[in-house]
Amino acid sequence: MSEQYKSEGRWWVSPYDFKPEVTALRRQPAKVLIHDATLRDGEQTPGVVFRKADKVRIAKALDLVGVDRIEAGMPAVSAEDFEAIQEITALGLKAKVFSFARAMNEDVDQALACGADGVVIEVPIGYPKLVTQFKWTWEDVVRKTAPVINYAKSKGLYAVFFPYDATRAREEDLDAMLEFIMRESAPDSIGLVDTMGCATPEAIAYLTRKYIDYTHLPVEVHTHNDFGMAVATELAAVGAGASVVHSCVNGLGERTGNAALEELIMALDLLYGAETGCDYGALPRLSALVSELSGVPIAQNKPVVGEENYTRESGIGANLVVEDPLVMFATHPSLTGRKGKVVLGKKSGKLSIVFKLKELGLGDLDEGQLSAVLSMVKKQGNERRCLVSDGEFSAIVSAVRGTK
Prior knowledge:
Helix 2 runs parallel beside helix 3 (79-89), helix 6 (138-154) packs parallel to helix 7 (171-184) and helix 8 runs parallel beside helix 9 (230-239). The protein has helices at 20-23, 52-65, 79-89, 105-114, 127-134, 138-154, 171-184, 201-215, 230-239, 261-272, 283-294, 320-323, 350-359, 367-384, 390-401, and strands spanning 6-7, 11-12, 33-36, 69-71, 96-102, 118-124, 158-164, 189-194, 219-223, 244-247, 311-312, 341-342. 42% of the residues lie in helices and 13% in strands. The chain has 2 domains: 3-294, Aldolase class I (TIM Barrel); 311-401, no CATH class. It has 15 helices and 12 strands.
């Protein structure tokens, strides 16, 4: 069994992730690229507005993390968005900069004027969208899109064909669309877009293989989180051969949001051995910045970046939270610049009290005193329905010591 499942002092995940019987089921590519869409799809979160300076700050922070591509926005939205993309492309970032476009040559021209490296060309293909919203057929989609793909490539842009709501498309429409596009205007890559987040990981894997077998192109997967499965479905796509994953910092996006960048990076590297090259230590700072600028708070227990991810109230193994974290967690707190923390409340045990006495330099208690302090801590946590602060704990200890 591969030793990839653990790294001394860094992580210890399931060894079954890397059993040959498990990895043999995958068609995972050698390199998986991270395409972040926070500045476009993330800004589509209702009420979120990123000004030009905000977008530049976030782009710099994304580059420090080490993402491969930054979708910097849609120039057609506003003059300020156009200027923001221009400024980002002028920064000389390591990441490639992409813009978002409708199937219109004018949008491609704006991407060129912004200095973008590539363009994501969006068209609908989901059957509910076609028949009700647009009154189109799949033929309308490809007739509108093929010339624009060819135009973008002729101008030296990397062209991503992005037929959205694909997981609700009729299969015969998908097949015909893919065949036509490859014959008339093969893009550089093709997006598998689960706009409504309604496909299972198995369905996404099936469609990924279909896209690859039909086109022999790189497949980019973009999912929403309507059923809480965005990261899982994108990982399933990678296992089926997708070579680009789309994400947004903190899972921002319309409705329930997108696959969260920070979760994807950690899962790809630690559970799939993808070696993205991203800096885990920079993820909390990036998430905090996006939270500040978006006004959307981060849940305290959010995977990877939650402030309380390495905090334990339960008394069992409390000392190991700090002394040997990988006994209690799959990842070491230091991987993302954190420390393990023991807090006191209703669920504490004697180990928690002993640990806290040592941490605060309050000396030792005899067995009777320990039991009394624990009882008071649990009672206070239960009655007030909150944690007991270090100051309150010190007062409890003093009160018990002063009792004959």
